[in-house]
Amino acid sequence: MLRQAESLTRGKRYAARRMNIWRWVIAAGIVLLLVLLVLNLYYRSVQAGVWAEEREVRELAMESAGLTQVNDVTKHVWDQTAWVVRGIDTDGRDVWVWLVEGEVQTLRAEESVTAARARELAEAQYPDARVLRVLPGLLGEEKAWEVYFHMNGESRTYHYAFYRFSDGAYLTTYNLPSRFAD
């Protein structure tokens, strides 16, 4: 009888311990879900302004340039802030649209070099370069491809090379000092 009571007590303790572990697992899962929810809400609140500005640019490009579809929107900041929109016009042609301080400029894609070609030009000019990014933008008043790359060597240095958007002609390169690059 004593043995039976002792066995029963051990069984209850084991069940209670097992129940306690599951409570902790469930509580940890709930806390994790709450943390993820808060992070998601924070991210959305931070990005809300950017998304609203991008939506505004899309609408302006569609109205002013007669686009039927917007494929890509890029914000380029250099001498001035420019929004570059790639889309399709009412004739079904690929078009690039620059929006700078309310002014709209368009260029058909067939009248320009591609991002891949701008990358090739930079890699040909700088054989040791590793291209990190190619963006459409403006350099002064000229439409250009911005190629951001770093040179492999003893000290890694970063550079911005600009190529004319219409024909790929080299414009200039800006070198970042290595103390800022590390």
UniProtKB/TrEMBL annotation:
<dbReference type="InterPro" id="IPR041401">
    <property type="entry name" value="TseB-like_dom"/>
</dbReference>
<dbReference type="Pfam" id="PF17881">
    <property type="entry name" value="TseB"/>
</dbReference>
<keyword id="KW-1133">Transmembrane helix</keyword>
<keyword id="KW-0472">Membrane</keyword>
<protein>
    <submittedName>
        <fullName>DUF5590 domain-containing protein</fullName>
    </submittedName>
</protein>
<feature type="domain" description="Cell wall elongation regulator TseB-like">
    <location>
        <begin position="59"/>
        <end position="98"/>
    </location>
</feature>
<feature type="transmembrane region" description="Helical">
    <location>
        <begin position="21"/>
        <end position="43"/>
    </location>
</feature>
<dbReference type="InterPro" id="IPR046350">
    <property type="entry name" value="Cystatin_sf"/>
</dbReference>
<keyword id="KW-0812">Transmembrane</keyword>
